[in-house]
Each structure stands twice: as structure tokens, then as C-alpha cells.
Amino acid sequence: MALLVDKYRPRSLEALTFHENLSERLRSLAQSGDFPHLLVYGPSGAGKKTRVVATLRELYGPGVEKIKIDSRVFQTTSNRKLEFNIVASVYHLEITPSDVGNFDRVVVQDLLKEVAQTQQVDQSARQRFKVVVINEADHLTRDAQAALRRTMEKYSPNLRLILLANSTANIIAPIRSRTLLVRVAAPTEADICKVLKRVGNAENFSESEALNQRIASDSGRNLRRALLMFEAVHAQNEKVSERTPVPPPDWEALIAQIADEIMAEHSPARILQVRAKLYDLLSHCIPATTILKTLTWKLIPKIDDALKADVIKWSAFYEHRLRLGSVRNRYYHCRSSS
Ligand SMILES: Nc1ncnc2c1ncn2[C@@H]1O[C@H](COP(=O)(O)OP(=O)(O)OP(=O)(O)O)[C@@H](O)[C@H]1O
């Protein structure tokens, strides 16, 4: 059974709720015959991906929804083999180069070159170009971004890029200036309530507007999160009311528990216990930066005022270290292979 986030994901530009002006702009771009490279950015759960997929549908028709997953192997200069997954339809490809960490340049370069040099297979395709959607573009290394920029200059006729990112801050200026920036702001709480109401009606859920409002506000204006919370509440309660408790996602509950444990006892044994839980979160693909940030916000209300600034400082310090860590790995890798 599909989750509500998938079941009710709007598939066409007309079906998208909120940010109507943006949907209109995307439609006219798709119909203009001169579709630019796009850099679509905004916070998590704002509906970036949904909008991009709807735009692809406007460009090519429903055929873009027939996707398959290809596994490819790339070879690095040091003869290391990298396995990499590509989601593709006849008309477009979707990749997440940050999956291969610091080897992202190899993937970007080889793959885009290959796509750019092949013609559309479907001769009756509405567009001459293929679209490559790049997820997490703000996590690309500088090298990969430089390679991307060269590809954009060289192969423009056969290829359009759609970059997805949370912010434009980590995208190099030459890419920003060659793409049309499309900002997808977080939906307002009222926008989220409308989506919850519509989904609830379609599913015949019992309804409480006050509860929906609470979910919208607890979600931090993240629509995916709001829908997941909404589904969890209704799975656990036949009838809901204003006061029905909203369970947090499992990973968040575990981080709250870690914060409690850190506060309750300061001993080496406790450190080991907490560490095991942190590994557990990492092995369930919760990003390290999310863990760090959530843990910080859970600890702050529990500690003395005098310590708060310190905790934030160290949290920021280690967040930065996480980034440096991946750069340093690469440095050692280069040294050991040269
Ligand atoms: N305009 C919309 N109307 C109704 N529901 C929407 C809309 N846009 C998105 N959604 C719902 O919100 C969910 C999250 O959207 P989406 O995956 O597009 O977010 P995102 O911004 O790409 O998030 P992330 O950056 O975390 O990947 C979707 O699964 C879909 O169900």
C-alpha cells in the first residue's frame, strides 16, 4: 500500500496546489520551445521534486512516468569501480551524484557526455533535448560543478539540466549564472492544511481542523513531514480530535531519547550506549547533519543558560568537521594512490 505522500503526489502542473504563479511560469517555459537549464531550490518538503516531475510531464507527456532503474559501473582514475544508480525514462535521467561522495566528478563527466552525444531515441519526442535531473546539487564537489559547467557550455543543444538544491549558497557562480533560478518556498501552514483536508476527505478520515493546524505547525512547513505525521495519527486513531497526540517520526523520537540519556548520566558506559544509537540512526540513512542539528535542538531546552552558547558552538564546529572530513578523505585517497 502506497504511503499518502506517494498516493496523493500531484502529477501534472494543473494538479499542483499552492504557488500557482510558479506553476504558470513553469508551464510557459515548458511550452516556449526554448527551455533553459534550471536550478530549483528551496527547503526540504516544499515540493521541488513534485514540481520538476510535473514540468517534465508538460515537456514530454505521460511517457516520462515510465521509468526504470539502471545500475552502472564507473571507473575512477585509481581503477576503483563505482556502482551508481540511474533512474531513467526514454526522455530523461535522474541522478544523485553525491551518492558516490568525492568521485562525483567522474559520474557527472562521463554520464553527461554520453547523454549529450546521443540523439533522442524516440524520433517523435516533443523535444530534441534530453533532461538530466541532478538531485542534491548543492552537495556536489567543486570539481564536479566545474565539470557540469563545461558540459553546459559544450553540449547545450541535446541536453538540459535541472539541478535540485536546498540553497544556492554552495553552487558556484558560473552555474548560477547559466541556469534560471527557480525558488520553491515552503508552503504556508494554510497551504498545508488545505492539502491535509483534501487527502483526509479522499481517504474518508475523521476530521479535526485544529489537529490539522497543529500538524501543519509542528511540521515546520515541510509538506512531506506533515503528510507522514497525518498518516501516522490516522493509522493509530479511528477518530481524531483537537487533542489527539501526534507521534513524532521514529528517528526523531530516538534522538529525543538520546538527549534524555545524555542528560541523565555522564559516564563512559552511557557514551557507549549513546554511540550505538547514533550508529543505528546513521545506518538507517538519517543524514549526520540532521542528527546533529536535531540533537542540539533537543538538548538546548534541557541545559543551563550558561551552557547553551557552548553547545551550539560545538555543534556548528562538528557540522563543519563533517564537511571537512569528506574533503580530507579525498586528500588521503589522492596521496595513497599517487
Ligand atoms: N503542490 C503540491 N500539492 C499537494 N501536495 C504536494 C505538492 N507538492 C508536493 N506535495 C507533496 O509533498 C511531498 C513532498 O514533496 P517533494 O518530494 O516534491 O519535496 P521536495 O521539496 O523535493 O523535498 P526534498 O528536498 O526533501 O527532497 C510529495 O510527496 C507530495 O505528496
What does this structure look like?
- The chain has 338 residues and is of the alpha/beta class.
- The protein folds into 3 domains: 4-183, P-loop containing nucleotide triphosphate hydrolases (Rossmann fold); 190-236; 250-337, Zinc Finger, Delta Prime, domain 3 (Up-down Bundle).
- Helix content is 52%, strand content 12%.
- The chain is built from 13 helices and 7 strands.
- A 7-stranded mixed β-sheet has the order 2-3-4-5-6-1-7, sandwiched between helices.
- Helix 10 (250-264) packs antiparallel against helix 11 (268-283) and helix 12 packs antiparallel against helix 13 (305-337).
- The longest helix has 33 residues, at 305-337.
- The protein is globular and about 65 Å long.
- The N and C termini lie far apart (51 Å).
- Residues 328-338 have low confidence and may be disordered.
- Residues 5, 8-10, 16-18, 44-50, 195, 223-224, 227 line the site of adenosine-5'-triphosphate (ATP).
- The site of adenosine-5'-triphosphate has 18 residues, from helix 3 and helix 9.
Task: Outline the fold blueprint.
Blueprint: H1 4-7, H2 20-31, E1 38-41, H3 48-60, E2 68-75, E3 81-88, E4 92-95, H4 104-117, E5 130-134, H5 142-154, E6 159-165, H6 173-176, E7 180-183, H7 189-203, H8 209-218, H9 223-236, H10 250-264, H11 268-283, H12 288-299, H13 305-337
Parallel strand pairs: 1-6, 1-7, 4-5, 5-6
Antiparallel strand pairs: 2-3, 3-4
Helix pairs in contact: 2-3, 4-5, 7-8, 8-9, 10-11, 10-12, 12-13
The structure holds adenosine-5'-triphosphate (ATP).
Adenosine-5'-triphosphate is lined by residues 5, 8-10, 16-18, 44-50, 195, 223-224, 227.
